[in-house]
Amino acid sequence: MSTDQSSAPSPSRNRWFQLLVGIVGMVAIANLQYGWTLFVGPIDSKFHWGKAAIQVAFTLFVLAETWLVPLEAYFVDRYGPRVIVAVGGILVGIAWALNSIADSLTMLYAGGVLGGIGAGIVYGTASGAALKWFPDRRGLAAGLTAAGFGAGSALTIIPIANQIKASGYESAFLTWGVLQGVVVVICAFLMHVPRKEDLAEVTVSSETQTARDFTPVEMLKTPAFYLLYVMMTMLAMGGLMATAQLGPIAKDFKVADNSVSLLGLTMAALPFALSLDRILNGITRPFFGWVSDHIGRENTMFIAFGLEGVAIFLLITFAHIPVLFVVFSGLTFFGWGEIYSLFPATCGDLFGRKFATTNYGLLYTAKGTASLLVPIGSLIAGSSGNWYPVFMLAIAFDWIGALLALFVLKPLRKRWLVSQPTEAVAVPA
Fold first, then answer.
1. Beta-carbon neighbour count of residue 296 at 10 Å?
2. How far apart are CA 246 and CA 273, in angstroms?
3. What is the CATH number of domain 11-199?
4. Under a CB-based contact definition with an 8 Å cutoff, are residues 30 and 180 in contact?
5. pTM of the prediction?
6. At a CB cut-off of 8 Å and minimum separation 6, what does 155 contact?
7. Can 11-199 and 203-426 be said to share one CATH topology?
8. Are 258 and 322 contacting, i.e. CB atoms less than 8 angstroms apart?
9. Model pLDDT for residues 314-346, shown as the tens digit of each residue
């Protein structure tokens, strides 16, 4: 049972306020993933460890950030978010503070692990809270929360880069580590678990989601979970393979440094593509989440996954044209980032609200599985001598995922809900 049970009404229990708190927490941890690339070069210039060895710290971060989420989420569901997320904020601060003084790869790797644990706590808690507070608008709420992580570094990347240039990467690590950690701790003590009276007016039809709360163990016994896991792994892997190699692809097609004018802006094709990709990667999450609240999760998956497959095909066909390289790489990101809103929303629909944090934490490990499989793309590219097999594999994953959503997951959901209680879903205590 959660320890966060206060009978006194509080403005902080407004669900939109709770959503905002989760988004701010996600923004505060975004730099741990999306700002890391700024530090690799300066660290290598100082210690000459080699970029490959330095990037192991990032791999450890991703593994810790994904694979430990189920355990962290269990404690959140069991004891409430405040203390657990506060610990996450402290770990976030310690991680970058440790990086600022790291004089060995071992210390750098330790910083990566600690940062991954802290970020995973915040990510899992914020995502689970969105599912719990918004059973009627799960797609939009999960999408807005995920957007905080996907685009949260947009405003801080330039200040961090400027501080690295002016004062060194050590100063930037320490300053931003402490700042981000403090923000997370503040968010922690503003978080609440929704009570029945907090969502008294919120009801949803049993035609769209279950009225039963599945425990994590019960969920792991269902075929529906493994279908979602396979689909999320495929979609995450396909998108990561295509997007992670954007820089090398731009150089191979000799468009990286070509000037592109678009939307009133002019810059080199590769940085233009990376900037546009980050923006669209954030926008797509609440957009497709909102769409799924209105036309259904599976219908939206079919559209979004199919769109990404088409976008990747257009990208490999026209990548030699700088402006189309920018446009179609952006469209690829727009068709990919929504997996972080559609899958948590679907998980909440099928398995209930009470254990939503832990249940989605288990599904979220699909991102970790995908990250371990992504190097396959590099091996394929290296053995074939070109990028086309990688892209074709990514396209296949997208279209297989789209077909599974429409022709397997959609009928499975209908059968699933028919077997559940038929009354309107009321938010449980």
1. 19
2. 9
3. 1.20.1250.20
4. no
5. 0.87
6. none
7. yes
8. yes
9. 998 999 999 999 999 999 989 988 999 999 999
